[in-house]
Specification:
Layout (H helix, E strand, L loop, with lengths): L1 H11 L5 H9 L1 H7 L7 H10 L19 H18 L5 E4 L6 E4 L17 H6 L6
Antiparallel strand pairs: 1-2
Helix pairs in contact: 2-4
Length: 136
């Protein structure tokens, strides 16, 4: 019976619930085949899932949960983004903090002064998500 219940829960996917066991056992054919008389309580279904190794947890949400180490993302970063960044670096302005007065100063490199500067624009995705919330 455990194998069949586990197979059923795996077929549902990562959002399987104890209620899915109840629904599965409401089918008279499944009750007869598994020799389960009547129905079970939701608490019993929770207990069975725990005994079978299923766990309840919140799904992580954050900057690096969305697959930043997926093969296609790593390939893009290594073969396209980083080489492009490296090519632009000579055109980028460089800054340092002056230790005597804590002012930020531009570092001038005489041999690689480009005619045009490349400006890199950084953004914080939390700003995007903060403005993308539904009002209830």
């Amino acid at each position: 019976m455990v194998e069949e219940l586990s197979l059923h829960l795996r077929s549902i996917g990562k959002y399987a619930r104890a209620k899915d066991i109840l629904d599965f056992l409401r089918d008279p054919e499944n009750q007869e085949r598994l020799k389960v008389p009547g129905s079970i309580s939701l608490k019993t279904a929770h207990h069975w899932m725990k005994r079978m190794g299923w766990q309840w947890k919140r799904e992580a949400k954050g900057q690096y949960v969305d697959g930043h180490e997926c093969e296609d993302v790593v390939t893009y970063r290594q073969n396209i983004f980083l080489p492009a960044w490296s090519n632009l670096q000579p055109q980028m302005r460089k800054w340092q903090v002056n230790p005597t007065n804590n002012d930020v100063e531009e570092i001038m490199e005489a041999q690689t002064v480009p005619q045009r500067h490349a400006v890199v624009w950084f953004h914080d995705e939390s700003t995007f998500y903060a403005n993308n919330q539904r009002k209830l």
